[in-house]
Amino acid sequence: MPIKIKDSLPAQKTLESENIFVMTEYRAMHQDIRPLNVLVLNLMPTKIETETQILRKLSNTPLQVEVEFMQTASYQPTHVSATHLDTFYTVFDEVKDRKFDGMIITGAPLDYVKFEDVDYWEEIKQILEWRKTHVHCTLYMCWSVFAALYYNYGIERTDLKEKLSGVYEHRVLKKSSPLFRGFDDVFYVPQSRAMAVYPEQIKAIPELELLAVSKEAGAAIMKTRDSRQFFMTGHSEYDIDTLSKEYFRDLERGLNPHIPVNYFPDDDPDQKPIVKWRSAGQLFYSNWLNYYVYQSTPYDVRDISEEEA
Questions:
Q1: Would residue 137 show up in a list of annotated catalytic residues for this protein?
Q2: 49 labelled catalytic
Q3: Is 235 a catalytic residue?
Q4: CB-CB contact of 224 with 207 (8 Å)
Q5: Which of 182, 210, 184 lies closest to 285 in space, CA to CA?
Q6: pLDDT tens per residue, range 57-75
Q7: Which of 112, 117, 152, 202 is deepest in the core (most CB within 10 A)?
Q8: Catalytic member of 134, 136, 170, 235
């Protein structure tokens, strides 16, 4: 949350030059506050684990957030009970007439599957079109990043010969961005995917802005210039053992996976992983929620309008 100070306090300019968000007394007095409405389209088969990871990130701020979970209607998950889905999830037809301050669309285990061959691709396209007029700010994670870039801008992904799995060093390109307030110049993010887009592809689209890159992982964090869409190819929300579970699962399937990079001490799967991404991950979600949802969404959610062309 911002710090509130008296109007024209000399420290204001210094703090703002250090990329610290300052709210003047005048602005604070004229703010209206209400809970934020955030919709999460959870495409992961491990529904409950993903719910917990995302809620953990969204809850660690002073903001009051009302979170709703949505599933696809055109594909029924098999890794979670129908009772859980009936109790805690909605579908698009039940929310299509409502508006939301923010939306998060998760990744999905769809490596090497063409978008047009995804069972729920038509539904995804419908949701991606709907959010233009019904969601103030959308955050895409992993697979949904590539789906949204493909649908909105025609950016083709590159399928990797080997899965990118591990904890990789990332570099901030735009240090003045509120998204990176509190970040170190270099930070770590888990990656788990077999597809990529590259910086030159993002830079070729005038509407997009590249914010962070990774030597191994390529284009890592992007946004639209109107700040209505954010794209994060990695998994800052991952628990300490998520990559470990994926590795041993693939091992049991006979897939001969590589040991996740920069994850197990001495690359020894028998040792407990070391977390290097938790603080940056929390900052990422907190900054996104604060600066790009809370600080800019209309007070009356019904006033959300179509995003800039």
A1: no
A2: no
A3: yes
A4: yes
A5: 182
A6: 988 888 888 899 999 998 8
A7: 202
A8: 235
